[in-house]
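Subject: design request, 249 residues
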């Protein structure tokens, strides 16, 4: 694991954007793994502005998102498809047909949907760079604590903590889904590079567990200790609980 501690969230986003830009410069038809949530929004803002400045082109890029709520319409503002369009896809020259999310509607078989998503990743020769956030409970994607470290794309029930953490994003009259399709931990581990972004004090404990704790399904992100090319971008607050912090500075 390469641990990079930066001053603030803006620097984390800038550094993540540098990684994405460098990849696409080297490989214009790169396959990107994308994440939703509050943390990567500032990364997407930077990518949009670099696109507008002519520094980066998504014309031949394919993307796979980590997760999507179960049985949600694309037009629902709470769907991750909607999120991706709002923050990235509708503002750059990516072709929507090259953007994939693990979806499953009521009446569809989640197992079949999961296998089809995995097959599509394989067909495009795998993910070059997977962007990740981390949940306060150590989840990556919606792989909640106790998820199998070898899991593939499948349906998961969200934990109480994740539902509580995400409830801030829902209005009172909006239904908060409690199930989602998510790339598995094994799927994430197959990415050639993994770039995990964590900012804010709410993440400090999970970050410490991920980096210095035991490899354990109780902290799914700890599996990245075994990834060959995992880069962890932290702001000071997220790095604050790290044991032996001085070592990483
Ligand atoms: P957040 O979510 O960026 O909204 O904190 C991260 C995650 O749950 O993976």
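Subject: RE: design request

Done. Sequence follows.
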């Amino acid at each position: 694991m390469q641990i990079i501690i930066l001053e603030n969230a803006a620097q984390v986003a800038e550094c993540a954007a540098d990684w994405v830009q460098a990849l696409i410069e080297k490989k214009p038809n790169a396959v990107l793994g994308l994440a939703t949530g509050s943390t990567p929004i500032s990364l997407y803002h930077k990518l949009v502005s670099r696109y507008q400045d002519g520094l980066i082109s998504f014309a031949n890029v394919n993307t796979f998102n980590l997760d999507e709520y179960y049985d949600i319409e694309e037009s629902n503002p709470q769907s991750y498809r909607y999120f991706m369009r709002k923050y990235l896809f509708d503002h750059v020259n990516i072709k929507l047909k090259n953007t994939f999310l693990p979806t499953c509607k009521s009446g569809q078989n989640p197992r079949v949907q999961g296998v089809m998503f995995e097959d599509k990743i394989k067909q495009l020769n795998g993910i070059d760079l997977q962007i990740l956030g981390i949940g306060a409970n150590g989840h990556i994607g919606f792989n909640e604590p106790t998820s199998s470290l070898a899991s593939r794309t499948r349906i998961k029930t969200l934990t109480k903590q994740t539902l509580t953490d995400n409830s801030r994003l829902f209005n009172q009259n909006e239904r908060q889904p409690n199930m989602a399709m998510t790339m598995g931990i094994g799927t994430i581990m197959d990415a050639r590079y993994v770039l995990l972004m964590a900012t804010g004090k709410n993440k400090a404990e999970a970050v410490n567990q991920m980096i210095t704790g035991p490899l354990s399904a109780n902290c799914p992100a700890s599996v990245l200790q075994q990834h060959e090319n995992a880069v962890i971008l932290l702001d000071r607050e997220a790095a604050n609980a790290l044991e032996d912090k001085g070592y990483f500075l």
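The helical segments are 9-26, 41-52, 80-87, 110-123, 160-166, 185-189, 204-212, 245-248.
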